[in-house]
Amino acid sequence: MKRFLIAIALVALLLAGCMSNIPKNSGDEKTFEEIVAPIEKDAEIMESIVIVGYKDSIDDAINLVKSIDPNATIRARLEQIKAVSFKTTLSFAEVREQILARLKSDEQLRQKISYVEPSYKRYLIEPIKNDNAKDLLESTLKTKQLPEEEEFWEWLWGIRKVKAPEAWELGYTGEGVIVAVVDTGVDGTHPDLQGQLVEGYRPLTDETLDPDMDSSFGGAHGTHVAGTIAAKRDGIGVVGVAPNAKIMPIVIFDTVGYIGDDLVAEGFLWAAEHGAKIFSNSWGGKGYSITLAHTIAFIMSEYNGIFVASAGNSHTDEIHYPSCFPGVINVAASTAVDGITYFSTRGRWITVAAPGDFTILSTVPLWDTSEFFDGENPYAFYGGTSMATPHVSGLIALLLEKLDQEEVSYTPYQIRKHIASTADDIMAPGFDHDSGWGRVNAHRALTQDLPSDTGANVFFQFYVSIGGDVFYAPEVYVTMYPQSDTLPVYYGKSDDYGFLPIVGIEPGVYDVYMAFGDAAYLELPVSLRKAYYMRITVYNGDNPFTHVFEFDFGT
After folding, report:
1. What is the active site of this protein (predicted)?
2. How confident is the model over 501-515, as pLDDT tens digits?
3. Any idea which residues carry the catalytic annotation?
4. 39-71 pLDDT, tens per residue?
C-alpha cells in the first residue's frame, strides 16, 4: 500500500512561531464538515461568473477558459493578486468541471492555474427603519441644553455618543484622510456632501466618477453612510464624525444589484491605488472568496489599508463576509442608552460596537424625497450595523489624521486593537459576543498611545506527497481556534497551490484544524477527507520563520 505524507510549510512574516506537538488526525475532535461548513454553508453563487487564479501569466487563465467557452468575456483583470474573471455562456459548475478535468489530465497546466471559484451573492445590510423614529428619539434623547452645532444637531446622538465633538476640540477632523465608501454610490450634489468627495469608481462600467456627481446608482444606502462619516460641519443639516475627511465612492451595488466578488476586488484595488486608507463596508454575505481574501490581505500588507465592515442584522451568531475575514474590524450596532440592538449579529468575531439603532439621522440623495424625515429636507432616520460601521470609519479617519501629523507608523492590526482597547465597556465586563470590546470612543482613542504589538501575518503553504511525488495541496480548509476566548476564530481556504494568507491577527496560541476539500484531480484517497490538527504559537517579531510539518498516514 502507498504511504501518504502531507507536508505543511508555514511561512510567517512579522511573526515567529513554534510547534508544540506533531500534527495528527483529530477527526474525533473536529469533523470534516465542522471545518468546511462554516464558510460554505448556505452560500449562494452568481451563475456564469468564473474567477481563475494563475501562477505566472494571465494568458494561461484566459486561454484555458476560452478553450472551454470561446464566447466567454473578461470581466476583471486582477493582476495584483494574479486572478482574472469571466462572464461565461456556460454555468459555473459546467466550466469548473471541465477545468478540473483539464487539470487532472495535464500536469503542466496544473502548474499554471492556482484556483477556480465562483462569485458569491452578497447583499446590502438593509437599514432597519421605524416610522416613529423621530417621535421615539424626541422622547428619550432630545434636549434643549445642547450647544449650537448643526441644524439638526439635537438628533445626532450617535455623533455625540462616540465623543466626536471632543475629538474636534483636540483639533482632529479627519483632514487629509480618504475613506472609500464601498456601497451603492453617493450623491455628491447633496448640500452636506458637496466638496466632501474625491473621484470614485464604478467597476461595473469601468468608469471614474466625478466628485460632484450623483453616483447613487444602487440606492440611498451609500449616501446615508457617507453622511455619517464626513458630512460638512457648516451649521446646515447634519455633520459627520470626521467632517474634513474625504469620501471616495466605490459602487458595488449598481443598477443590477450586487456586481460580484471579482468587480468588488477591482474596486478595492482601484481605491487603494488612488489613496483610500479606510474601506467602509456596510454589506456582506455567505461564502469564503479566495479572491476577496487575497485582495484584502494584499491591501492590508501593501497599502496599510484598514477594513471596517458591518457584522450584519441577523441577530444570530453567524459567519459573514467581508466582516469575518482576518484583520477586518467587525462592527455591531449599539443603542442610544448603550445597549446592543435586538437585530445586531452576535459572535466571537465582533470587534466593537457603534451607534446603529433605527434613529441614526444622516444624508439621503436629493431624489429620495419619500424618505425625507421631515418631509422637506434630504435626511432620513436609518438603523442597522450599516449605520454603526460609518461611525467607526469616521473615528479611524480622526485617528489617522493624528498619527500622520505626528509621523507615527502603524499597522491595520494596531488600529483595530487600539479602537477596541479604548472603547467604553457597555455590556458584560471585557469582551462579549454582543458588543465585542465595547462602544467606540473617539476622545479616548485620540488621547491614548497605540498598542506596541504590531500583530502577525501568517502565510500557510500546503503540500501533499504521494508515492514520492510532491504536489501543492489544493483547497485546504483551515480553522484557527485561539486558546483565548477573547480572540476571534479565523477561517480560510487555500488556493490550488496550497497558499493561504491570514493577515493582521493577534499573537497567541492557536489550535489549527485542517481538512481537504476538492482534491479530485490529484486522486487523493477518501481517507484524506477528515480533519487534522496542530498547535502553533505566533508572536510579534521581525524575523521570517519557516517550518515544515509532516502528516504520516501510515502504510
Report:
1. 183 (charge relay system), 221 (charge relay system), 386 (charge relay system)
2. 898 999 889 998 888
3. 183, 221, 386
4. 777 899 999 999 999 999 999 999 999 999 999
* Owner of C-alpha cell 471616495: 248
Q: Using 50, 70 and 90 to split pLDDT, how confident is the model at 532?
A: confident
CB 112 within 8 A of CB 57: yes
Kind and range of the H or E run holding 140: helix 133-140
| Residues contacting 4, CB < 8 A, separation 6+ | 464, 465, 466, 525, 527, 528, 552, 553
Q: Which band of pLDDT confidence, cut at 50, 70 and 90, is reported for residue 129? A: low
In 10 A of CB 393, how many CB atoms? 36
Nearest to 305 by CA among 277, 331, 330, 265: 277
Backbone angles phi, psi at 191, to 5 degrees: -55, -35
235-250 in b/e form (b: 16+ CB < 10 A) is: eebbbbbbbbbbbbbb
Nearest in space to 12 (alpha carbons), one of 554, 551, 543: 543
Q: 370: which residues sit within 8 A by CB, 6+ positions away?
A: none
* Per-residue pLDDT at 361: 97
Q: What is the pLDDT of residues 325-337, one digit of tens each?
A: 999 999 999 999 9
The Cα–Cα gap between 101 and 104 comes to 5
Strands 531-540 and 15-19: antiparallel
In terms of DSSP H, where are the helices of 464-531? none
- % of the chain at pLDDT higher than 90: 68
How many CB atoms are located within 10 Å of the residue 409 CB? 9
In angstroms, the CA 46 to CA 486 distance is 35
Could you tell me the domains of the chain?
4-31+455-552 (2.60.40), 45-120 (3.30.70.80), 126-447 (3.40.50.200)
Q: What is the DSSP code (8-state) at residue 476?
A: E
* Whole-angstrom Cα Rg for the chain: 24
Q: Which residue has the cell 466582516?
A: 323
| Entry pTM | 0.92
Residue 314 confidence class, pLDDT cut points 50, 70, 90: confident
